[in-house]
Design a protein that fits this description.
The strands form four sheets. An eight-stranded parallel barrel has the order 10-11-12-13-14-15-16-17, surrounded by eight helices. With 471 residues, the protein is of the alpha/beta class. The protein is built from 17 helices and 17 strands. It has helices at residues 7-10, 12-22, 148-151, 164-173, 186-194, 204-212, 222-235, 251-264, 291-308, 320-323, 326-339, 352-359, 383-389, 399-416, 429-436, 438-446, 459-470; strands spanning 32-34, 37-41, 48-50, 53-57, 62-67, 76-82, 84-86, 120-125, 128-132, 178-183, 200-202, 240-243, 268-272, 313-318, 343-346, 367-370, 393-396.
Amino acid sequence: LENGVGAETLGLGRRIRDFACSSPPSFSSCCCWLARPRQHQSDTGGEPRMQPLAIAHHARVSKVAAFSSSSPFASFKFLDSGQGFVGVRRGFATQTGMLLGRSGLRGWRMSPSLGCGLQTRLFQAGGCALDIQSREGAAAVGESAAPASAQSAGPEDGAAVESRAAVMRRLLASPGIQRGPACHNALSAKLCEKMNFGYVFMNGFGVAASRLALPDTGLISYGEMADQGRQLTGAVSIPVIADGETGYGTLLNVKRTVRGYIHTGFAGIVLEDQDIPRACGHTPGRKVVSRENAVARIKAAVDAREESFKDIVIVGRTDARQAVSLDEALWRVQAFADAGADVLFIDALASRDEMHTFMKVAPGVPKMLNMLEGGGRTPLTSSAILEEIGFKLVCYPLSLIGVSIRAMRAALHALKSGRIPPPSDLATYEDLKNVLGFNEYFKEEQQYITPPSTGTSSPDSKVTSTASVKS
């Protein structure tokens, strides 16, 4: 720290501790800190504001944590790297390794050549430079280099497991469109995973229907959605993007919702700009909040993500197409992208021409579309055509809940008539056991069953044992 400003004064001690504790056990890191005073005093008139930068290096992963000068100790940005830098936070690093940043970090260049086993001068700004060293050079900054065995560590020997948010970001960066059914409970999500879908949605429509038997009109609460999400994410290992609706209240409620969804295990959250009381998509009477409030929701979500030191993909949704106009919707999604949204979503686009127009906004940000089965304002379009248009995510919100309702009605009609559902409509008992994991359960149970003793006992011991049982 320059100018003799202590870590305790800046509150960095706790941040450094939290950063170290958040690293996986095998993360033998070289951590360097740079704090550069700004030209003006802090708002409170005390110590000058600093711009600290933390770098940690792993054999196969590099993490960069940077604080925004506008909120020096709350804006924590992660950038992950395998072979060269990949932008985990869109707008903070590109594939070529340029650190874009916000406010005080603007113009700081990241070396695209940074890789494992290299010693690179990474940042230079305002005459301050920081040397980032690999494992081989870790001793120069007070940490011993990790053994060679740790450098080749993989998941099988204790390396960190990829988070679901990281998996979701990898899907967003991969070629082709990603199809995601909307699930309403753990069983529907498990079926999707067994069918090899890469990710799923958990939408408010399905949860309100299956959990409350009520319409998706804002009646379901944050607590109920989070509780349903814990069951759902606990049943699968694939990423789940959850409906966060309006954030369930004020801007601070938005932050609480994001933090709660992160702890629930969601890989992503969809936040919309509807006013309260909200209405279901593709239904009449929808109203949206002001531009300023809509953008503030995304900013609050981004802040909550950064303050939590964990990742979640933020999908910025606007309902302004139906509530106001297409032009208003286009303005809002551009503002959402500028505020830090990772994916953009305009609900109820009315034509393919509007879809193409949507693609022109924030071209570097993935786009999502809601393909409402059974009829809606958006024309039903094949995923192949949507991929040609440029969409990255397509959600099918009604397929699973819709066929479930129809199948239950048919079964109940048969039972009411004194029949059972036909074999073509009814899963066998063996099929049900396979879906629910009975065989896996019994196999795992065998690991903890103690086999009976094979040794022989003397007559005296048998008498003692019998007496003991009688007593």
